[in-house]
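[step 3/7] fold_predict: job queued, chain A
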Amino acid sequence: MVLETKPIVYIISDSIGETAEFVVKAVASQFNSGQVDIRRVSYVNDPEKIKETVREASKYRSMIAYTLVLPELRELIEKEAAVFNLPTVDVMGPMMAAFSRIMSTDPRLEPGLVRRLDENYFRRIAAVEFAVKYDDGKDPRGLLEADVVLIGVSRTSKTPMSMYLAHRRVKVANLPLVPEIEPPEELYLVPPRRIIGLTIKPHLLQQIRQERLNALGLKAHANYANMERILEELEYAQKIMRRIGCTIIDVSNKAVEELANKVLHILKEEEQNEN
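[step 4/7] structure written:
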């Protein structure tokens, strides 16, 4: 006996079931008020759970929509639903079949991949926003929240490296070291393993700074590019780095990608040591 209730759509998914629910709601909106009861059955990988859900659905005026990547589970739903003459909709199956005709590889058949991709995307966006917010020592509180802190004198690739690492989902804060400005106390609260000191050969730094001044239309012999000043800054930065006990990387003539990958390698080694 089928109980008289408003229509019920059972959504069976090997992940959360958001995709099928979106489709169900879009279709339901085309039928008057779209009033249907949606019941999600998430993270299904057990045949018995499918049978149980189909038996429950058979008691009501209902249908089943499903997003399952494993063919054997899709076949089981169709078989069980046929016993009770329940309508079913395979939300993903036809699309996967069509993709298989145009793609050079077989589907991975891994549940929840879309959600994992979305999580990676949002983690990357969050890391980029973090890098912008805590760039160039804007807010020292970010030093304590960062996955890694880059320190060094001006023009040692701190910002480009921060952005590159952010796109790899690493939260980075960077801090310029200037002799006249004492580093914030937060820097000394960060574990040394999470701090990377960046240094550079003096003559190369002078060249970079002179080019920067030229680009800004300023005099190339300004104090910013003066060798005596550069040596003072580098000596001061080395003193701070030694005091902290952090890893130091020479950025001279190295691409940002190479440097960032070196930082990632260091972080991975530290993580393995902790475990």
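[step 5/7] annotate
The longest helix spans residues 113-133.
DSSP finds ten helices and eight strands in the chain.
exit 0
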